[in-house]
Write a structure and sequence with these properties.
The complex is a heterodimer of chains A (about 170) and B (about 290). Chain A has about 170 residues and is an all-alpha fold. Chain A is about 65% helix and about 0% strand. The chains are: A mainly alpha (about 170), B alpha+beta (about 290).
Chain lengths: ~170, ~290
């Protein structure tokens, strides 16, 4: 069916980007793939609705964020993801990832989502608020508090690394 | 670029995230295939109709959704069908009425008429109209999903499987009785979806399924008893599943709450007819 062919094209084009956001949210490669797959499954079921919207990518992201936030709420508040050991040819890459994931893991699901949207997706507070159903002011407040929490946990000697020169082998072992 | 960042440290956080995530890869081919296969299975289950037991399970889900919400308003997993129902008969091959793939999604034509807090007030008003001599408590309400008040409608992301619930306590002089109402998008994962059917199955005397003139199905559970140490918690429930993918469920108990309260009367204050009127009231949904 042509509509479902559109789904395949959409999924193939966007799964990678969704996967990176999912990895920042979950801190774990397996959980990230599960989150993306659950998201795309939901989109498939509702594809006629999704494909008729102005911005299916925004819808996909909103679905994934809602799934992540609501899924985390149902778990014990003491549960925290453990960063997967990710294969990397660069020791500095491993330290950056572990450092970042451990810092993000100290946040609740909503604050973690806000930081990812603001700093990885580079969205403004009103845009983040629109995505999450919050006011821009609430987004700014939560951002400030979340940053105050993670900044001390991030090493001061971070410097941008030309990771494009490394060979990417970031699949965690199954 | 978003210029609303505070300082260089914040910009560095963004750079850290991109540095950390940019070489993360997922198996897009496998994920796409698996998502499509899972989606096809769910779509096919909804299109080929449902057995009587599945209808019961759906009604139980609706009851579980109203019963199982904790103080934070979060749903528990749907309950499995209780053993008091008749066993699922050997399913006959259903005769599906295929939904054309180009047919517009009819659920988008209607949406919630009220904001979550408004549902409680409207429920209280409706109950007072139905039981004018009874006392009706102030309502409580709960919901999941993000609802946005608009001038003439309520905005909501239907992909988030939203629902609204509200409850009041009615006392008609025979004891306190909880009456609650659930309004939900019935197209979420694990739910029935549009165009549900009562596929012919022998249900118990207290459990029926009928089809309305507009294609909705109405599932009724009466005198459903849950044995407790202090007696039997008895409930009546009517669940309407509309052809355009909505679920409205009305329940009444012989207690002020569905758990953790004494049994206050022999039977719920609202019977099947009153609950059917409540569920079929046209004030819960509005056309676009």
């Amino acid at each position: 069916m042509s509509s479902k062919h559109g789904f395949d094209q959409f999924a193939l084009a966007n799964a990678q980007k969704l996967g990176r956001v999912a990895w920042l949210l979950t801190g774990h490669s397996h959980a990230a793939e599960d989150l993306v797959q659950d998201t795309l499954t939901n989109l498939y079921v509702h594809w006629s609705r999704v494909s008729s919207t102005d911005d299916p990518v925004r819808y996909a992201r909103a679905t994934m964020l809602n799934t992540f936030i609501s899924g985390r709420r149902k778990r014990s508040s003491t549960e925290r993801p453990v960063a997967a050991i990710v294969e990397s040819t660069c020791e500095c890459d491993y330290e950056v990832r572990t450092d970042l994931i451990r810092a993000l893991a100290t946040l609740n699901a909503l604050d973690r989502t806000i930081l990812v949207l603001r700093f990885f997706e580079d969205m403004s507070p009103p845009d983040v608020g629109g995505q999450l159903g919050m006011t821009a002011g609430a987004v700014r407040t939560r951002t400030s508090r979340a940053l105050a929490r993670v900044r001390p946990l991030l090493s001061d000697d971070y410097a941008p690394h030309d990771h494009a020169a490394t060979q990417p082998t970031q699949r965690s072992p199954r | 670029m978003n210029n609303d960042h505070d300082d260089a440290a914040d910009l560095a956080l963004g750079e850290r995230m991109r540095h950390a995530a940019d070489t993360i890869t997922v198996d897009t081919d496998r994920i796409t295939i698996n998502a499509a296969n899972s989606g096809k299975r769910r779509t096919n289950l909804r299109r080929t109709g449902i057995t009587g037991l599945s209808v019961a399970a759906a009604a139980v889900f609706a009851v579980a959704l109203t019963q199982g919400l904790n103080g934070a308003g979060q749903a528990v997993e749907p309950a499995t069908a209780p053993s008091t129902f008749a066993p699922d008969p050997a399913p006959t091959t259903p005769t599906p009425e295929p939904v054309p793939s180009t047919e517009p999604d009819a659920a988008e034509a209607r949406t919630f008429a009220l904001m979550p807090e408004g549902l409680g007030a409207a429920l209280a008003d409706t109950v007072r109209e139905a039981a004018p001599d009874a006392t009706v408590s102030a309502p409580v309400n709960w919901s999941e999903g993000t609802f946005t008040k608009r001038p003439d409608s309520v905005g909501v992301d239907l992909l988030s499987d939203p629902f609204q619930g509200a409850a009041v306590v009615v006392d008609d002089g025979l004891g306190s009785s909880r009456v609650d109402l659930l309004v939900a998008d019935n197209e979420g994962l694990g739910l029935i979806g549009p165009n549900p059917t009562c596929v012919g199955a022998e249900l118990s005397p207290s459990h029926s399924c009928s089809t309305g003139p507009d294609g909705s199905i109405i599932v009724t559970l009466t005198d459903w008893a849950e044995q407790r140490s202090d007696g039997a918690l008895v409930s009546n429930n009517v669940t309407v599943m509309t052809a355009d993918g909505w679920l409205i469920s009305a329940t009444s108990y012989n207690s002020a709450t569905e758990k953790d309260s004494p049994i206050t009367r022999d039977s719920p204050a609202f019977d099947e007819d009153q609950l059917r009127d409540l569920a079929l009231d046209d004030r819960w949904l509005t056309g676009a």
